[in-house]
Amino acid sequence: MKENRKTNIKVGVTVILALLIFIWILGWAKRITIAGDYNVLKMRFDSVSGLEIGDHITVNGVKMGKVHDIKIDGNYVIVEGYIPKSVIIKKDAQARVEMLDLMGGKKIELKPGESNELFDFNDVLYGKLSTDIPGALSMVGNVEQDLKAIIIDTRNMLDKINKNFSDETVITSLKNSLKNLEEITNNLNSFLIKNNSKLDKTIENISVITEKTDKFLTQNSDTLLATFNETRLLVNNLNKVVNALDQIFNQTKTGENNLGKVIYDEELYAKLKQSIIRLDEISRLLQEQLNSQGIKVDAKIRLFR
């Protein structure tokens, strides 16, 4: 009886120890901790592309945590993960869903960031989905129609090119163009060879002229500057004279000055006209007297009163 009891106790202790060892190994493998030395990181993605609970969270490629929960929030996906408190997350941290291996596994790659401010775990970290093999294949499927259209257009263009080059007229024209181009090239080469010395002389003369001009400008910079200043003053003075003449013309036209009053005064004009008529009559009388008997002067002179 006592032997059976001892045996049961041994078996029970062994089972309990085995369970404890299994739980410890499972926690170590899954990075499950009951000591509370982890932070809960909330991340929001547009899509997670097959990410599952229990997938790894890596920090700079090192496995540091696990995905704890995945929820749908409208058009977004909220992912909660456990990461050790020893991992310091900055405010500019980045989370990205990436492919774990070629078999299609997923993981979350976390970049801790370089900001001076720490990330508040009460906030949500916005993440992105990296393009994986299925995503790349989906993109290829989306551009399949465009690729077909490009291939068809390329084929049509090649057909047109073949038709053009099979036309004897086009080939003849192309040969003539190449021949003319060759003649032009030869003529240009011959011209350059014949006039090589002249071109060198011309370039040398241009260089000399440039040097002399530069030297002249350098030596006479003060004189040229003074000339420019005097020219500017002259132009300003001419502008003043023109403005003054314009003002005089305006005053004359409006009758504000004496010349304007003389020119535009109608009464004075009438008197001048009448005076001119009288002078004309007097001249005519004098001319008649001169032609006939001379000028008669009838004057009484009193010498004494």
Number of strands: 7
Main pleated sheet: 7 strands, mixed, barrel
Kindly state the mean pLDDT as a whole number? 80
Helix-strand pattern, N to C? HEEEEEEEHHHHHHH
Point out poorly predicted stretches. Answer: none
- Helix fraction by DSSP (H/I, runs of at least 4): 55-70%
Distance between the termini: 198 Å
- What would you call the shape? elongated
Radius of gyration: 56 Å
Sheet with most strands: strand arrangement: 1-4-3-2-6-5-7
Q: Give the CATH topology of one domain.
A: Elongation Factor Tu (Ef-tu), domain 3
How much of the sequence lies in strands comes to: 15-25%
The DSSP helix count reads 8
> Tell me, what is the CATH class of one domain?
Mainly Beta
Structure description:
The protein is an alpha/beta fold. Among the domains are: 30 residues; 97 residues, Elongation Factor Tu (Ef-tu), domain 3 (Beta Barrel). Helix content is 59%, strand content 17%. It contains eight helices and seven strands; from the N terminus they run αβββββββααααααα. Strands 1-4-3-2-6-5-7 form a seven-stranded mixed β-barrel. A hairpin with a 2-residue loop joins strand 2 and strand 3. Helix 6 packs across helix 7. The radius of gyration is 56 Å and the shape is elongated. The model has no long low-confidence stretch (mean pLDDT 80).
